[in-house]
Amino acid sequence: MDTAEVILSVLVVVIIIVSLLSNILVLICFLYNPEIRKQVPGLFNLNLTFCNLLLTVSNMPLTLVGLISKAQPGGDGFCQIVGFLETFLSTNSMLSMAALSIDRWIAVVFPLRYHSKMRHKDAAFVLGYTWAHSMSFSTVATCLSWVGYHRLYASCTLSNPRASSRTQFVIFTVFFHSFTFLLSFIVLCVTYLKVLKVARFHCKRIDVITMQTLVLLVDIHPSVRQRCLEEQKRRRQRATRKISTFIGTFMLCFAPYVITRIVELFPAVPINPHWGIVSKCLAYSKAACDPFVYSLLRHQYKKTCTDIINRLLKRSSLNASGRGQQNQVNSIPTE
User: Taking every annotated instance into account, which residue ranges of this chain make up the domain G-protein coupled receptors family 1 profile (predicted)?
Assistant: First the structure.
């Protein structure tokens, strides 16, 4: 292994550890807090967490093995199963992000009708579509033997070693990425930009009210006035930063891999083997980013994590004090 391969192997290990711990923490918060379970977005987050966890334990370690050994991990049948899972889980996670963006769009643009437009059965219907959509592409690829070990990515993924079906594979690959990555990206852009438009409109209304109040309060201290103006600026930047994070992480993690898969369809264009692994690592890193982007940085999840930690520390302190009292009782001499 050269230096670049060692660095990439370490990167895969870091992604596996972060993704595993963060997604498990999201799952614990979901099971611990009944309020999170009652909310419709919690179902989409649960589905996304489920996909990320399965991808972390089933595909990432085998990519690490393929990168180190430079050979296919397991037999052809085993690799086809892993490739089926990789295609299914990556598609399902992209569509889950699109579903979350639609949910937030309805919540912000139609706040009074949100509970009638997005109920649990509506969320179940959306999740059913994401599963059917993901299952159809992965099943077709597996049945046509377009899933196998790909040396460029050191992974069991979409691959076509047969020259006889190259044209059909090219059509399928373009169609697949158009209705997974491109579709999800368009949905994210349309919904989140509408959310940003509404958020900026409300910020302007709040700014007008704040400025009118500051004008009326002529005796207000300059420091208080300055803090109000700074809060206005932070409020405007907060919405833009959140939307940029949702769309930016999606593009940064998935776009290099998808573009590489499309460029790969042209045999005349050479692709550096190290870049293939880097693009795959970027796609895997989305599973490690999602828990923070969609869950753990939200106030409700932060509070749940704090409650869990406090409960564990309280239980530990109670156990320690109980053992101390028991030792004191045992140390009292008996006549």
Answer: 22-294
